[in-house]
Amino acid sequence: MRGEPSLGLEVHQNKFLAEGDRAMTAIVRVVSRGGEAPVARMAAEVLMIDCSSSMRFPSTKIGEARRAAAVAIDVLPDGVRFAVIQGTDIAKVIYPAENGLVTASERTRAEARAAVEHLAAVGGTAMGAWLAKARDLFEGVPDAVRHAILLTDGRNDSQTRADLLSVLNGCEGRFVCDIRGIGDGWEPAELTLIGRVLRGNVDSVVDDDKLAEDFRQLVESAMTKVLPEVRLRIGTMPFSRLRSVKQVFPDEYDLTDRCQEIAVREVELSLGSFASEETRDYQLILDLDPDLEPSHGRDRQLAWTELVSVPGAKTEEDALAIAGQWTHDPVPPTKVNALVSRYAERNALSEALAAGSEACTTGDRATAERELGRAFSLATALRDENMLDRLRAVLEVLEEEGVVRLRDNVPRSALMHLVIATGVSEIAPAPEDRPMPEAAPADAPPVTCAVCHALSPAGVNFCVGCRRAFGEAAS
Q: Residues 207-254: pLDDT tens digits?
């Protein structure tokens, strides 16, 4: 692949507001297209392997960690700068011998594979130290696409959460880090925190022998990145406020507190590195001044967003507006934008997973089955096969009877594999990819709301009286 990459921006929303509405939700889509091969632009990779004492039990963990590191090293193309860190309560660079990055070649890959064979599990866990060392290593290649993998089986017990967060704040924007948990002793909240700040993918590997293939895929994906960092700028109006911004694809992260204020009513957000062909979606929610005079019959700009100029890339669009228009017609505000609707469903899925998993840990079997059963139904509607596979590991699904049952003696690793997936979004379809309900016939009768008994036109998603969601388009 050759040429200069380009970045595109899209805004997806339903701009129509009912008289009393004072909030707007929009999906901002960032798309990269084209670009030269990443190795030609320089790439850098750092592997951080947990070698704390707990990695000895069972012995397959440290053995598979060595094998995974060797596989990751093997797929590094010539010219990539890399290093391997042995992580305990300190960070030790085990390859190269000198404290820096080395250029990948047949010789250095062989030397690195030999070095990781000597990884020994002894010591504590200080992930902040590992990340700080990776940051220092990346300092020597400021223009490279910088990527790291962090593998752990335990909690960050050798330093405080405040210390970890301080390191993360210093690493944000410097490199992207994918995180993997192995075994059942790691803490989902810690790994999610690292992934959120460093814009990486967070997941777990239940079967130790699948770790190597997972590492291979992570490195191969990292080698497709062509832009070290992309930044999004968001501006609001005097009468609007940014309530939240959340990445909803490919991974779910609330990034509200990661926004950097650069001017009055303007913030910037680092999106991390981008591949030559990649799509990411971000959900923005705006709160509007309660005293704002509604604009009827014309659009009013509520906010705007734009991509910050990226060296070596061209931007296809100027700033795009997030607009609103109030209407007395009760129908337009009830029409839900396809992407907004889909990510609302994904949010409901995440909530059901979190509630079901919490019930499992407290022994509340009835609540666990109810919430995880709801999650199974939502994942089925979303056609999320990855999530369905995770749910089947903890549930018996009796589809003919329409019930689910929690399996007996569910291993903690399977439950954690489910919990960590609440922050992973598997599919980002284009609006046209999601089949929308067929339009109701012109003579279709109105639908009666079961709550307030108001009549709504056939085909709408919300009651025009109480605004209750019908779930599916009414017909």
A: 999 999 999 999 999 999 989 999 999 999 999 999 999 999 998 889
Q: In the structure encoding, which two tokens stand for residue 403, read together?
A: 């019930």
Query: Which amino acid, 364?
Result: D
Residue with tokens 């963990």: 61
Residue 75 to residue 219: CA distance in whole angstroms: 7
Q: For the chain, what is the radius of gyration of the CA atoms?
A: 24
Which region, left, alpha or beta, applies to residue 200 given φ > 0 means left and ψ of -120 to 50 means alpha? beta
Looking only at the bridges linking them, the beta strands covering 225-236 and 240-249 are: unpaired
Question: Largest Cα–Cα distance of the chain, in whole Å?
Answer: 77
Measured from the Cβ of residue 217, the count of other Cβ atoms closer than 10 Å reads 14
Euclidean distance between CA atoms 250 and 404, whole angstroms:
28
- Cα–Cα distance, 163 to 423 (Å, whole number): 23
| Cβ neighbours around 299 below 10 Å, total | 12
Q: Is 364 exposed, middle or buried (0-12, 13-18, 19+ CB in 10 A)?
A: middle
List all residues 6 or more positions away from 431 whose beta carbon is below 8 Å from its beta carbon.
Answer: 12, 337, 338, 339
Q: How far is CA 354 from CA 11, 187, 390, 415, in A?
A: 29, 14, 14, 11
- How far apart (Å, rounded) are the C-alpha atoms in residues 74 and 76? 6
Check residue 312 and give its pLDDT. Answer: 77
Whole-number Å distance between alpha carbons of 44 and 62: 24
Query: Model confidence over 25-73: pLDDT tens digits?
Result: 999 999 998 866 444 458 999 999 999 999 999 888 999 999 999 999 9
SS (H, E, C) 191-249: HHHHHHHHCCCEEEECCHHHHHHHHHHHHHHHCCEEEEEEEEEEEECCCEEEEEEEEEE
d(CA 98, CA 95): 8
Among the residues of 252-317, which ranges form H helices? none
- What pLDDT band is residue 2 in, cutting at 50, 70 and 90? low
Measured in degrees and rounded to the nearest 5, phi and psi for residue 218 equal -65, -45
> Are 309 and 5 contacting, i.e. CB atoms less than 8 angstroms apart?
no
Whole-number Cα distances in Å, 138 to 17, 132, 228: 48, 10, 12
pLDDT tens by residue, 73-103 = 999 999 999 999 999 999 999 999 888 999 9
